Amino acid sequence: MRLKALLVSGVTLMAASVGSAAYAQQAALMPLPAAMSAGTGQLLVDGGFTVALAGPADPHLTVAAHTLIQRLSAKTGQFLAGAPVAKGATLTLTVTGVSAAVPAPQEDEAYTLTVTPKGASITAATSVGINRGIATFAQLVTNGPQGWAVPAVTIHDQPRFPWRGLLLDVSRHFMPIASVERTIDLMQAVKLNVLHWHLADNQGFRVESKVFPKLHQLGSDGDFYTQDQVRQVIRYAADRGIRVVPEFDMPGHTTAWLVGYPELASAPGPYTIERHWGVFDPALDPTRDSTYQFLDRLVSEMTALFPDPYFHIGGDEVNGEQWKASPAVQAYMKAHGLKDTAALQALFTTRVQAIVARHGKHAIGWDEIMDGDMPKDVVVQSWRDTESLKKAALAGHAGILSAPYYLDLSWPAGRHYAADPMPENLPAGLEGLILGGEACAWSERLSPENLDIRLWPRAAVVAEKLWSPKDMTADIPAMYARLDSVADDLAFAGSRHRAANEAMLARVAGPAGVGAVWSLAQAVEPLKDYNRSTQRPDAVQSTPLNRLVDAIPAESAVAREFGLAVDRLIAQPGDTAARTQVRSLLERWQTAETLLAPYRQATPLLAELAGPAAKLTRLAEAGLAAADAVATGKPLADRAAAKKALAEAVEPGAELEFAILPAVTRLVKAAP
Ligand code: ACM
């Protein structure tokens, strides 16, 4: 009998029996564990599944047990007893120590997971490692002929990088506590361990300040977190082994602060909350002592509220316009020999860093903060390019990579996955300065409704990049082979990426019925990078995010499958299975125009889709003709029409792009 290798790439796990191999194959782990070896047989996870705790009592550990029970109940559809049992449990969670109130930046996250047909155990130093282990265990549970089970296995696992973050921008669009806590649940499920909470920006100051109440009272439209809610979120995250790092972006990105405190700016105001997207002129005035007195009191309040040793001070995208326009600021710069506004910002950063340090914290800033003469303990977060981390490390700074991990730019998962956090050609000995990375969810076009569609499952791919050994994260097709199952698991852990997609598409379809937009939705993706802003520069904070473009994932799985089938057909014109798959998808897309035609004027959400649907129909017709030409070897009859369809498909409109365009283009090119 041939033994089957596990689907998980890079891990040569040979299953000892075909039965367990079948289950193991379905178990899509993400992140891949550092080391695993298969045992014999499987452990059933039936309605009698129980968890026991061992080692010193720790409330965080109890939450971990409940988290696992809940997740397994959701995944297996079985009622599982909620409370840990004293002994004889299916799974025992053993710790040797009690975790601190909140996780530390260099926490021991290693765990060992052992599964035999008789029982399972996860051991770790504290509940933090247990949290990582239960995330793996939940993913390992798969369904087979005998029901739900985990294959026998031994896993020794620990992260490659200590800092594995997710930035959540709650300023541009406020995210309610439920969204934040759900995000934390999902971070736990893929072993992300830092919630970077972007709390203040031009469009909203989102945390209650008792010292300067006009910050949230006038700067948030009433959408802010009370300090009690902040403490609740920090506790919720700590229970799941996750740190919370707040960001108060300054001196730019501060318009919302200035509504209540215009005297902080270099121009008199008055100010209103910014409703547009982009980079704006208002900035804190770096030349007045009163600015630093204000910041000292605010930092004092906020560093007391947020226990993490790191405190993010932003520093990005200061255009210097207010400073250039202010005679007082210009006079100050002249008197202090500051040659440009970057030098002035560097002075500001130095003083704010000193304030942060005086309150016992390490400052983090976006890569612009390196322009100054920063103390070495300032951490640099790259967003403009990957080179900045190397530059930072050469200057002695620790760094966090974000530039290739912007989830709001609607890149495919594979593009994020291709970026390694470790800069190339980093001199030996500096590797330790690369702390890890953060996926970023900037929220110009994210709402509580479509947040999960933008985050999941793509953030899991970044999580793997940050957790798993480098040589295990090089195979992009193998990553995609696991991604669908990972997305299922995330849904069981609470992600609404699929539910929201369906509900939003139903709203878009309205009287047409969701079937009428479904084929179009699978052929398109949102415009990438910042091209949505270019196509709709008039979008503002109140612009509804309820269109097709807001409802669809960044990457169409169907379009990806289509592309692979097209490549098989081009490589093997006699491959009838590939031809059938290509044709059946194209035939579905061909109907897009007809399906929508009766409803073209029914609602504005449908009206904007008439153009894209018509172009999709033409594109599909071109694809069908080309596919037949490739398969039969007979010349493409109307190449001019095909080329016209391709050219028109470059800009579908409605802030969309055709995800299938590259593959159809390849087909037309390959057609004789
Ligand atoms: C940034 O994206 N401006 C940090």
Number of spatially distinct domains: 3
* Strand composition percent: 5-15%
Q: Please count the helical segments.
A: 27
- Work out the number of β strands: 18
Biggest β-sheet, characterized?
Answer: 9 strands, mixed
Q: Low-confidence spans: pLDDT under 50, at least 5 residues?
A: 1-24
**In angstroms, what is the radius of gyration?**
27 Å
- What is the name of the CATH superfamily of the largest domain? Glycosidases
Family: Belongs to the glycosyl hydrolase 20 family.
Keywords: Glycosidase, Hydrolase, Signal
Signal peptide: 1-24
Domain Glycoside hydrolase family 20 catalytic: 161-469
Question: How would you summarize the topology of this molecule?
Answer:
Blueprint: H1 18-26, E1 35-44, E2 51-54, H2 59-76, E3 91-95, E4 111-116, E5 119-124, H3 127-140, E6 142-144, E7 147-157, E8 163-169, H4 177-189, E9 194-201, E10 204-205, H5 214-219, H6 227-239, E11 243-248, H7 255-260, H8 289-305, E12 310-312, H9 321-325, H10 327-335, H11 341-358, E13 362-366, E14 379-382, H12 387-394, E15 399-401, H13 413-417, E16 434-441, H14 451-455, H15 458-467, H16 476-492, H17 497-509, H18 514-523, E17 524-526, H19 531-535, H20 548-551, H21 557-571, H22 576-590, H23 592-596, H24 604-607, H25 610-632, H26 639-648, E18 656-658, H27 661-670
Parallel strand pairs: 2-3, 3-5, 8-9, 8-16, 9-11, 12-13, 13-14, 14-15, 15-16
Antiparallel strand pairs: 1-7, 4-5, 4-7, 6-7, 9-10, 17-18
Helix pairs in contact: 2-3, 4-6, 8-11, 17-18, 21-22, 21-27, 22-25, 25-26, 25-27, 26-27
The structure holds acetamide.
Residues 316-317, 366, 383 line the site of acetamide.
Family: Belongs to the glycosyl hydrolase 20 family.
Keywords: Glycosidase, Hydrolase, Signal
Pfam families: Glyco_hydro_20, Glyco_hydro_20b
